[in-house]
Amino acid sequence: MTITCLRHSLALSMLVALLLTGCSSTQPFERPPLPEDRVYAGEPVDPFAADEPDALPTMPEPIGGMRGIQDEVRYPPSARRAGIEGRVRLQFMIAPDGKTYNVEVVGLQGIPSDANPQALDDLRYEAKRVIYASTWVPGMRGDKPVPVRMTWPVTFRAD
Questions:
Q1: Helix/strand/coil (H, E, C) string of the chain?
Q2: Which of 41, 42, 60, 108 is deepest in the core (most CB within 10 A)?
Q3: What is the pTM of this model?
Q4: What is the pLDDT of residues 35-62, one digit of tens each?
């Protein structure tokens, strides 16, 4: 009789584990606060300044490349349910420390502006979150890191 109880207990434990694992994908979209108070007050370097053609900076690059940024994207469930795909374009500053500052959404590509408002808000939030979380090799002018303003797309695809 003890063996039967043990089997039932084990089966029940496995069933609970499977149910909990299956339910994790239906959790609400988490939105921890963004570091929007992270503001860079310095002036960015204009990489195309005509007065210094020989001193063009090396442009910043995300550590891990574009793929590294895209791998961090969590597709918001509200956007998935609404079938929304496309790109959120962001403008931000890469400071000499390699962190991102002043992240702003500047456009949507392939995303209808009249789509589900919650889904659009979630897409904008997630794009900003990913950029704030990224680390970059800063732009360089000679051997000195310099602040550079960037525009970057974050792509959302229901795969």
A1: CHHHHHHHHHHHHHHHHHHHHHHHHHCCCCCCCCCCCCCCCCCCECCCCCCCHHHCCECCEECCHHHHHHHCCCCCHHHHHHCCCEEEEEEEEECCCCCEEEEEEEEEECCCCCCCHHHHHHHHHHHHHHHHHCCEECEEECCEEECEEEEEEEEECCC
A2: 60
A3: 0.74
A4: 877 888 878 877 666 566 555 678 899 9
